Amino acid sequence: MKYSQHSVGLLAALGAFVAWGMAPVYFKFLGQVGADEIIAHRVLWSVVVLALVLLIRDGAALPRRLVLAPRTLAALLLSGSLIVVNWLIFIYAVNTDRVLSTSLGYFINPLVTVLFGVIFFREKLAVLQVIGVAIAALGTLYMALRVGQFPWIALGLALSFALYSVVRKVLDVGPMIGLFWETLLMAPLALIWLVWLAGNTRLAFDPAELDLALLLAGTGLVTVIPLLLFAAGVRRLPLSTIGVMQYLAPTITFVLAVFVYAEPFSIDHAVTFACIWIGLFLFSWAGWVRIRRTRIPV
């Protein structure tokens, strides 16, 4: 059976967002390992997996494609630091039973990214989009005031990834090459940290414990496979479709947190999430209307 390019793209994007949404399940199996060690392994094994994928894809042309200007490498060092911070917050939240906070963070993320687009790139928003962002912000503020605790996990995830998006937007580097350099530049710190953990008898990784060792090595695949699927989807689908599908991952995470891991979900959570969802709906609707107007001549 032959599939159309659109169908292949849809399946690929669906696979990517489902994988990202289900990521807490994988990292829950590593709950006995510190978030710092998991991140170090994730960085190192991602370098290995990405190197193999790029070698298969580019062959003899790979060395030439890996040559980047020093200024670009400096920017990738910054974006690499931001994505590592994002990973660290995410894994810490999962392993401390705060999966719901990660869902909130990734629901907020598109709105923060848009806000940064306005600030850094002077992008224009429709009135309905401004209202959507404001409602989402009020929902987050409500949570902070009612719970009496700053929602640092959710905002940390949203801000770190939004800033990461800003840095990557100004770089003319493909997603695979970019992530390879980002993880490669972080690799020395990751290796030094693992050596320090081993020297202080705090290293959980042990080849004798094959299950745990494979899970830690598998963090490279967990990182790279969704990215490959996402790249395949983006090439074949309209960005408007990708924009709608991006909410699938935090929705899956939300369901996991509430119905699988039985994390507390109070009326305050309900109000906050309702504000975020209303804000996202208004923002997405206004964006869809704008796209329709540009496609249909008046």
Provide mean pLDDT, rounded. 89
What is the strand tally?
0
Number of helices: 13
Structural class: mainly alpha
Along the chain, the helix and strand elements come as: HHHHHHHHHHHHH
- Integer-rounded radius of gyration: 20 Å
Detail the poorly predicted runs.
none
Task: Tell me the number of structural domains.
Answer: 1
Helix amount: over 70%
What share of the residues does DSSP label as strand, in percent? under 5%
Oligomer: single chain
**Tertiary shape:** globular
Mind summarizing the main beta sheet? none
Termini separation: 41 Å
Brief synopsis:
The chain has 298 residues and is mainly alpha-helical.
Could you characterize what this model shows?
By secondary structure, this protein is mostly helical. The protein has one domain (5-295). Helix content is 81%, strand content 0%. It contains 13 helices and no strands. The protein has helices spanning 5-28, 35-58, 62-65, 70-95, 99-121, 127-147, 152-169, 175-199, 210-217, 219-236, 239-245, 248-260, 267-295. Helix 2 runs antiparallel to helix 8 and helix 6 (127-147) runs antiparallel to helix 13. The radius of gyration is 20 Å and the shape is globular. The protein starts with a helix and ends with a helix. The model has no long low-confidence stretch (mean pLDDT 89).
